[in-house]
Amino acid sequence: MRFVFYGLGAIGGGLAAILARSGRDVIGIARGAQLEAVKAGGLRVRAPEIDEIVKFPCVGAPSEIDFRPDDVIFLTMKTQDTKAALEDLRKCGVRDQAIVCTQNGIENERLALRVFPNVYGAVVMMPVDFVKPGEVAINCSPKLGVFNIGRYPQGVDVVAEDVCRALDSAGFAGFPDSDVMPGKYGKLLLNLSNVLDAAGGEPGRKSDLSKMASVEAKQVLETCGIAYTTDYRRDDLMRMTPVPGVKRTGSSSAQSLVRGAGSIETDYLNGEIVLTGRLNGVPAPVNEFLCELGRRLVVEGIAPGSLSAEELQRAYDEFRAA
């Protein structure tokens, strides 16, 4: 079994480095400065008790890989980039290989299943920062992350079990999950505050708007009969633990802004609640506002963490009054 990581940002880079460090066969697909850094000197991975440079093969595109039947391909890009990535994989001859959606939100699995038959969902609990090209920091212990993995839409097979065993042996905790999507919906609820963290830092993430977005989203899901759970949380195995000398950037959305990625995943987090509500006649004005906030952060170039909780609340009130 070879592990292919399509995207070497925070999650993809951390997973690739730790699995390669444990002796697993790993190859990464990256771009830009990250590709250059990893090819030149490997990837430095830092954790509370780890600080190592790990070397593994890295290429700039799937077309540079001779894919094997036993490859397990982890999608670790943001959802807005998933469709193009799937098309690139198909053009390279990928057919029946396992595709593991190691991403926030619940749209990636649906996109992947349109193209490939063997799709797996992964609930990811791994607080990791992209520090700079060639370096990531994993901010938790005693495990380096917790993962629930199962076939999409349901089921567990030998691939899911083998991936979880590989994660376990590398220092993560992997749990085969025959019904993974309720956990992904539960994680979605947690990620609804990402855009507020990106806009206002910790005060934004802990604001009344964050609580309002979560309550509204639960109402939407429950009204529409969509199951969600927090059973994926295993706080005894993974606690937030700062890496010495590394200041956390924040949520994955905040990291996108800091890196100048030019896009943000809000439309596939809060936007999932908006879409579900609109399809079923359930209003979701708070999450609709947060989608607009995400657009503004990118289009207007608003500095990450620069908006106060009061400014965010005022912007919401103006949005509602418009």
Summary of the model, kept short:
The chain is of the alpha/beta class and 322 residues long. The chain is built from 12 helices and 14 strands.
Tell me the layout of helices and strands.
Elements: E1 2-6, H1 10-21, E2 25-29, H2 32-41, E3 43-47, E4 50-54, E5 58-59, E6 71-75, H3 82-91, E7 98-101, H4 107-113, E8 119-125, E9 128-132, E10 135-138, E11 140-142, E12 146-151, H5 158-170, E13 173-176, H6 181-191, H7 194-205, H8 208-223, E14 238-240, H9 252-259, H10 270-279, H11 285-299, H12 309-321
How would you characterize this protein structure?
By secondary structure, this protein is of the alpha/beta class. It folds into two domains: 2-179, Rossmann fold, CATH 3.40.50; 184-321, Orthogonal Bundle (N-(1-d-carboxylethyl)-l-norvaline Dehydrogenase, domain 2), CATH 1.10.1040.10. 43% of the residues lie in helices and 20% in strands. It has twelve helices and 14 strands. The strands form three sheets. An eight-stranded mixed sheet has the order 5-2-1-6-7-8-12-13, with helices on both faces. The protein has a four-stranded mixed sheet with strand order 4-3-10-9. It has a two-stranded antiparallel ribbon with strand order 11-14. Helix 8 crosses helix 11 (285-299). The longest helix has 16 residues, at 208-223. The mean pLDDT is 96.
How many strands, which pairing sense, and closed or not: the largest β-sheet?
A: 8 strands, mixed
- Would you state the CATH class of the largest domain? Alpha Beta
CATH architecture descriptor text of the largest domain: 3-Layer(aba) Sandwich
The H/E string reads EHEHEEEEHEHEEEEEHEHHHEHHHH
Q: How is the largest sheet built, in terms of strand order?
A: 5-2-1-6-7-8-12-13
**Termini Cα gap:** 55 Å
The residue fraction in helices comes out at: 40-55%
Low-confidence stretches: none
The radius of gyration over CA amounts to 19 Å
